[in-house]
Amino acid sequence: MDYNDHMKIKDNFHPFAIITILFWSLAYVFTRLALRHFSPFSLGFLRYFIASIVLLIIVIFIKINIPQKNDLKWFILSGFFGFFFYMIAFNIGSVSVTASTSSIIIATTPIITTLLARIFFKEKLKIIQYIAIIIQFTGVGILTLMNGIFSINKGLIWIILASVSLSIYNLLQRKLTKTYSAINSVIISILFGTLMLLVFLPKSIEEIKNVSMLPIIYLIILGIFSSAIAYITWTHAFKIAKNTSSVTNYMFLTPFLTTILGIILANEIPENSTIIGGIIIILGMIIFYFSDIIIKMNKSRNNGT
Length: 305
Description:
Helix content is 78%, strand content 1%. It is mainly alpha-helical and 305 residues long. It has one domain. A two-stranded antiparallel sheet has the order 1-2. The N and C termini lie far apart (43 Å).
C-alpha cells in the first residue's frame, strides 16, 4: 500500500460511520432489554458512567487539550444535548416504543440536522434534497398512523425529542472538531454529560444491587461499544467529512439492523405501520444521499437529447 492509498483510507469517513451505526443498532435492542431491570434514569447514568471510565483510561495514553474558556460553554451544551437530555429522552421513550420504531424515529435525525446546518452553517441543499426530506417526513407521518388513526403516545414524543437533541449535538460537534480532535471533543462532552447524570447516582446504586449478571452485560455493551467507541468514531467521521449530511444519512441504515436484532434478541416483531413508514423514510434517504448522481444523470440525459 503506497502513501496515497494510506491517505485515502485515513481520510475516508465511511468506515467510521459504519462502525458507529453497527454499535448504535445494538444499543436500541439492548436498551429495551436493560430497561426490564433498570429505570430510564439509572440506565442513562450507568451507561455513561461506564463510558466515562473507559474514556478516562484512554486519556492516560493520549493527550487531550483542556477546553479554552471561550469553548467551555459549547462543551457543556454538547454534554447536555448529546448525553444528558438525549439519554433521558431516549430511555423514557424506549420503555413503551419498540426498538425498530425508536430506531426509525432517531433515523430522522439527518432531516433535522441538515435543516439546522442549512440555517447555522449555510450548507446548501438542492431541490431534490428538499423533496427527499418531504418524503422522509411523510414516512414519519405514516409511522404514527396506528390502525388508520393518527395516534402518538408519550414514548414516541420522547423519542422525537431525543432526535432533536441529537441533531443539536451533531452541530455542536461539527463546531468543536474544527478546533479540537474528535476524541478530545467526545471525551470532554461525555464527561460533562456524565457529571449531569450524577443526580441519578443514589437510585442507580439501589437498582444495580438487585440485578443478575445478564443486565450487567447489557450495561457493559452499552457503555463501552455503543457509547465510548461509537461516539468517537461518529465524531471522527464528522471531522473528516465535507458535509454534515454525508455522515448523518448513515443513520437511515439503523432501522434495518435494529429490526433484525430486535427480532433475534428481543422477539419484537415490527408493526405494519413501522414497516411501511420505515420503507418510505429509507426511500427518502436514498434519494437524498444519491441526489448528486441523480442530478448528473438527468443532465447527461438532457445533453444527450
